[in-house]
Write a structure and sequence with these properties.
- This protein has helices spanning 3-25, 32-39, 48-55, 59-67.
- By secondary structure, it is mainly α.
- Helix 1 (3-25) runs antiparallel to helix 2 (32-39).
């Protein structure tokens, strides 16, 4: 396999990840979870400030969701 074929194969596999994650996690439509999954490839290292920016929800809302 040549490097360009491997790169194309990797790109295809990566592009399928968000759909697979969504299938497994089953986030509610328009939820913070759905927003995070959609952007995770763009922002693979996530901290609380980034999550707040992506979801538009305050930290307390995300923590309450995790505890439920």
């Amino acid at each position: 396999m040549h490097a360009n074929e491997a790169a194309a194969e990797s790109a295809q596999a990566l592009s399928e990840l968000p759909g697979a994650w969504k299938h497994v996690a089953k986030p509610r439509a328009n939820s913070a979870d759905e927003a995070l999954l959609a952007r995770l490839l763009e922002v693979p290292i996530l901290n609380a400030d980034m999550a707040t920016e992506i979801t538009g929800q305050p930290m307390s809302a995300r923590i309450a969701h995790l505890v439920d």
